[in-house]
């Protein structure tokens, strides 16, 4: 579904990504792991069209989208759930969700999709009229996930979805990711909780200093002595 080759990206004179290559298969969970500053978020922003690559190619469902604007990527079925959730705090839960269907391809049938999101996240239905800024961090993450689903994505980009959450909410987020995969969604996950991320990943890529240092099935990286020592504290 997604193929990235030779991806480079910079912030001004500082190069952050160096010839990054990876693929995401349809119906899979693919995980990017690595320390802070390894380049995970920059990859996500490059895929979403928020950071312009300086070199390389991004192909989504066979189409070269390297220079395609971000709104066109969303309309084509690629959706970013950003780090930090970034819900609109002064708007209600339902208003936040409906904004997720703003792309033309998602507008038709958005009421049906809203009902499906409420079925998947009953807490959001209970709080549909509440201001998003008054929700807990875990509830806001559920809202961010629901807003992403409203776009009817073919590929969901999740950037650090468990950041700052209590352990019980971390568990719920990972359970939701598994449920979404089982429902047929394709997910690219950038996550610092490497152990759990590798346990559920079909394929994983370890990033170090803007480069892919290691790749393979999630279980294979989880069993790697180097990964266990450097990233899992084992």
Structure description:
This protein is of the alpha/beta class and 234 residues long. The chain has 2 domains: 2-77 and 154-231, P-loop containing nucleotide triphosphate hydrolases (Rossmann fold), CATH 3.40.50; 90-151, no CATH class. It is built from 11 helices and 10 strands. The strands form 2 sheets. A 6-stranded mixed beta sheet has the order 6-7-8-3-9-10, sandwiched between helices. A 4-stranded antiparallel beta sheet has the order 2-1-4-5, with helices on one face. Helix 3 runs parallel beside helix 7 and helix 5 packs antiparallel against helix 7 (137-150). It is globular. The two termini are 34 Å apart. The mean pLDDT is 91.
Layout: helices, strands, pairs:
Layout: E1 2-11, E2 14-24, E3 29-33, H1 40-48, E4 55-60, E5 63-64, H2 70-76, E6 78-81, H3 93-99, H4 104-107, H5 110-120, H6 122-126, H7 137-150, E7 155-159, H8 167-182, E8 186-190, H9 194-200, E9 203-208, E10 211-216, H10 218-223, H11 225-231
Parallel strand pairs: 3-8, 3-9, 6-7, 7-8
Antiparallel strand pairs: 1-2, 1-4, 4-5, 9-10
Helix pairs in contact: 3-7, 5-7
A few lines on this structure:
The protein is an alpha/beta fold and 234 residues long. The chain is built from eleven helices and ten strands.
> What is the general shape?
globular
Helical percentage = 25-40%
How large is the share of residues in beta strands? Answer: 25-35%
Question: Which residues sit in consecutive blocks of at least 5 with pLDDT less than 50?
Answer: none
The number of helical runs is 11
CATH architecture of the largest domain: 3-Layer(aba) Sandwich
CATH superfamily of the largest domain: P-loop containing nucleotide triphosphate hydrolases
Domains counted in the coordinates: how many?
Answer: 2
Head-to-tail CA distance between termini: 34 Å
InterPro entries: AAA+_ATPase, ABC_transporter-like_ATP-bd, ABC_transporter-like_CS, BCAA_Transport_ATP-bd_LivF, P-loop_NTPase
Protein name: ABC transporter domain-containing protein
Domain ABC transporter: 2-234
GO molecular function: ATP binding; ATP hydrolysis activity; branched-chain amino acid transmembrane transporter activity
